[in-house]
Write a structure and sequence with these properties.
By secondary structure, this protein is an alpha+beta fold. The protein has helices at residues 2-8, 19-53, 72-78, 82-85, 99-112, 168-174, 179-189, 194-201, 205-219, 224-233; strands at 57-61, 67-70, 116-123, 129-140, 146-155. The chain has a five-stranded antiparallel sheet.
Length: 239
């Protein structure tokens, strides 16, 4: 009745969208969102399954820097449960002489969203301290949002002298450097030339050489040999 009345006054009433069509579109959108959530959960489960089967020790941390996952290899090495290691529980196994440096490296890398590689002593299930080498990288989701860190670790006791303890002063000096400067320091201390370090890091020779000059200045030394000694005493490279 209303449509015929409006038409009688000269209004052209174009047909609006059918309510059934709107409802169908809304349902289809909801179905697609659920399919996306299921696909994401499935991908996460596939990764967890792979990590569970890996012989390497694998861990994951959320955007709050707290660890929420350790695979069976890690838990077997530590002789502890996931509940005991989760959050900051894993830090209870750190050697007291390595604890501060380990946590500083982790938190600085986490804050800067940068990859790290470090070595520290961790108590094993046999109640012995073993040298562990650990690497971690930032993780982003499909919309490029930061969601945490993913890392792996392995026992390198056979390659690291158990009696070596980093020198506190050297550690403080090395951590006065920027992350990029430490990367250059490690590469040069491992025998790379400035040119090779630049190529390895994907930066120009001029930039790498500038980093090298700032390292010398900050450490208060004047030659490469002294840089190397700082890297060794800080535990960044093997003696």
């Amino acid at each position: 009745m209303m449509n015929s009345t409006m038409a009688a006054f000269g209004y052209d009433m174009a047909p609006g969208p059918d309510l059934n069509e709107v409802a169908a579109l809304q349902k289809r959108l909801a179905d697609l969102e659920e399919e996306l959530r299921q696909a994401k959960r499935s991908a996460e489960q596939r990764f967890i399954s792979l990590a569970d089967a890996s012989p390497a020790m694998i861990w994951m941390a959320g955007p709050d820097a707290l660890h929420w996952y350790f695979n069976p290899a890690w838990l077997e090495f530590r002789g502890r449960t996931l509940e005991e290691e989760a959050g900051n529980g894993w830090t209870q196994g750190l050697h007291q002489d390595d604890r501060d440096l380990c946590l500083e490296t982790y938190l600085k890398s986490f804050s800067a969203r940068q990859r790290f590689r470090m070595q520290y002593r961790m108590r094993s299930a046999a109640n012995e301290f073993c040298w562990v080498e650990s690497v971690g990288s930032p993780v982003y989701n499909e919309t490029k949002d930061f969601v945490g860190f993913l890392g792996s670790a392995w026992d390198v006791s056979g390659r690291k002298p158990s009696y070596f303890t980093p020198d506190d002063q050297s550690v403080r000096m090395v951590f006065s450097l920027t992350e990029r400067e430490r990367q250059v320091l490690v590469l040069i201390a491992n025998g790379r030339s400035t040119k090779e370090a630049a190529a390895n890091l994907g930066i120009s020779y001029k930039t790498a050489d500038s980093h090298r000059s700032r390292i010398l200045e900050k450490l208060g030394v004047h030659e490469t040999a002294s840089m190397v000694r700082y890297a060794i005493r800080a535990g960044l490279v093997a003696p």
